[in-house]
């Protein structure tokens, strides 16, 4: 089977998040057959909810739709390196593969900072692929924060 990147869907969600005044991060969740089951962007401001990160929203949507708490075999695409909280949730949901775009030296929890998946307390470690369409994701964030200064 040919590998198809779904990062463009996540990037579209990140742009939509920026248009809503949210930090431009988007996510897309793909089921084991390659079907898109959820896509969303950050909504922390809109919902007054610090947990409304793009990753959490798509995991919640998929779990609710499928009436399950685990998503084995699923692939998650995120435009930015997930934070430690999202990393723990990704592990709890048993996501099989994590594809992310830009590294997040400030708040990332995968390749830097707490490196959640390296802890012995982390019971499930997804395959991680970083640097997927990273320049595009990075440019969105840069533009967003430049406009706010
Ligand atoms: Zn997060």
TrEMBL record:
Gene3D superfamilies cross-referenced by the UniProt entry: Cytidine Deaminase, domain 2 (3.40.140.10)
Record-linked InterPro entries: APOBEC/CMP_deaminase_Zn-bd, CMP_dCMP_dom, Cytidine_deaminase-like, tRNA_aden_deaminase
Positions annotated as active site in the UniProt record: 55
Enzyme class: hydrolase
Purpose: Catalyzes the deamination of adenosine to inosine at the wobble position 34 of tRNA(Arg2).
Membership in a protein family: Belongs to the cytidine and deoxycytidylate deaminase family. ADAT2 subfamily.
PANTHER family named in the record: CYTOSINE DEAMINASE FAMILY MEMBER (PTHR11079), TRNA(ADENINE(34)) DEAMINASE, CHLOROPLASTIC (PTHR11079:SF179)
The protein's name in its UniProt record: tRNA-specific adenosine deaminase
Originating species: Pseudooceanicola spongiae
């Amino acid at each position: 089977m040919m590998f198809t990147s779904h990062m463009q869907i996540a990037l579209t969600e990140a742009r939509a998040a920026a248009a809503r005044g949210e930090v431009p991060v988007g996510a897309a969740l793909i089921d084991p057959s390659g079907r898109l089951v959820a896509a969303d962007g950050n909504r922390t401001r809109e919902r007054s909810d610090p947990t409304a990160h793009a990753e959490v929203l798509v995991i919640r949507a998929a779990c609710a739709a499928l009436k399950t708490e685990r998503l084995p075999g699923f692939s998650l695409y995120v435009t930015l390196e997930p934070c430690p909280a999202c990393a723990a949730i990704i592990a709890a949901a048993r996501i099989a593969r994590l594809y992310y775009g830009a590294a997040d030296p400030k708040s990332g929890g995968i390749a830097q900072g707490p490196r959640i998946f390296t802890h012995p307390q982390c019971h499930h470690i997804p395959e991680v692929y970083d640097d997927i369409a990273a320049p595009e994701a990075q440019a969105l964030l840069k533009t967003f924060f430049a406009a706010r200064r």
